[in-house]
Amino acid sequence: MASKAIIKAAAAQLKPVLNDGLGTTSKICDMIRASAAEGADIIVFPETCVPNYPYFSFIQPPVLQGADHLKLYEESVVIPGPLTDLVSAAARESEMVVVLGVNERDHGTLYNAQLIFDVNGEIVLKRRKITPTYHERMIWGQGDGSGLKAVDTGIARIGALACWEHYNPLARYALMADHEEIHCSQFPGSLVGQIFADQMEVTMRHHALESGCFVINATGWLDDEQIKSITADDKLQKALRGGCNTMIISPEGKHLVAPLTEGEGIIYAELDMKLIDKRKRMMDSVGHYSRPELLSINIDKTGYKHASITDSSLIIPEKLEEI
């Protein structure tokens, strides 16, 4: 259960420092401290905003992506590592929950990862996007179900999904069944145009209504110079505009503050946690409104490993006869 009756939430629409993990992380830490000064208890940042979402992958054919993909490797985040240590320190100093999207580097593979830092600055959730979407499959590996859960953070029980994972209803249901109170959603922004923002609007409000929880959604944003630095093609530049819709939604499916659809900034709203009970009293999708004997899901939360090692040298000699 939420530890506070009223939680002040912040959603950041961030302009990354392209191809600069430290530069983007420094901006994130500044925004954490700025929102703390406004009394925020939690702040959500966009999808893979450290160092930046791989916008190049949406407009370039695979044969031309090598150089940009390698740049992304160089600036991506090792977890834990120096960049996560900076965010941990800012979260701890500010006594805030921080939800951050990063490009995670795990040896030779990159992953779309979501991190939740609690009020003590500890990473209480690291999850990887289950299936990268469309063009993203050339950039990131697949995640597993080990992070498909809600976690206690010191202010509330929080779950997270990235972008089009919200179109996988079973993934959303897994978090609903784990009783998330605040759902944190992350999209890249500056992609596809207005249709992307419109779809986001419907999806986020629907999840809030269906789950009976608050939704904090954060998207990224690119300015014209950044877009031109990614591609000089006027037609392709159009594909890197729009699609921004940073918002905070109540369990009743209502905007708690005007959404941010253009430019960099932070929006704030107060979450009255009593609204969760008000909604679920009438319709609890994972309680009195469910029919598990008719409809249920199986969730495999195994954290799969690429190698399982048996070391015979660890066997105690006295026990050999018993084996």
CATH-defined superfamily:
Carbon-nitrogen hydrolase
Mean pLDDT over all positions: 95
Write the CATH architecture name: 4-Layer Sandwich
> Segments where pLDDT lies below 50 for 5+ residues?
none
Q: Span between N and C termini?
A: 48 Å
Cα-atom radius of gyration: 20 Å
Provide the spatial order of strands within the biggest beta sheet: 5-4-3-2-1-11
Order of secondary-structure elements: EHEHHHEEEEEHEHEHHEEH
Please outline the helices and strands:
Blueprint: E1 6-13, H1 21-37, E2 42-44, H2 56-59, H3 66-75, H4 82-94, E3 97-106, E4 109-117, E5 123-128, E6 151-152, E7 157-162, H5 169-177, E8 182-187, H6 194-211, E9 214-219, H7 224-230, H8 234-238, E10 247-249, E11 265-272, H9 274-282
Parallel strand pairs: 1-2, 2-3, 7-8, 8-9
Antiparallel strand pairs: 1-11, 3-4, 4-5, 6-7, 9-10
Overall description:
With 323 residues, the protein is α/β, with parallel strands linked by helices. It has a single domain (6-322), classed as Nitrilase/N-carbamoyl-D-aminoacid amidohydrolase (4-Layer Sandwich), CATH 3.60.110. The chain is built from nine helices and eleven strands. It has helices at residues 21-37, 56-59, 66-75, 82-94, 169-177, 194-211, 224-230, 234-238, 274-282; strands spanning 6-13, 42-44, 97-106, 109-117, 123-128, 151-152, 157-162, 182-187, 214-219, 247-249, 265-272. It has a six-stranded mixed β-sheet with strand order 5-4-3-2-1-11. It has a five-stranded mixed β-sheet with strand order 6-7-8-9-10, with helices on one face. Helix 1 packs parallel to helix 4 (82-94). The radius of gyration is 20 Å and the shape is globular. The chain starts with 5 loop residues before the first strand and ends in a 41-residue tail after the last helix. The mean pLDDT is 95.
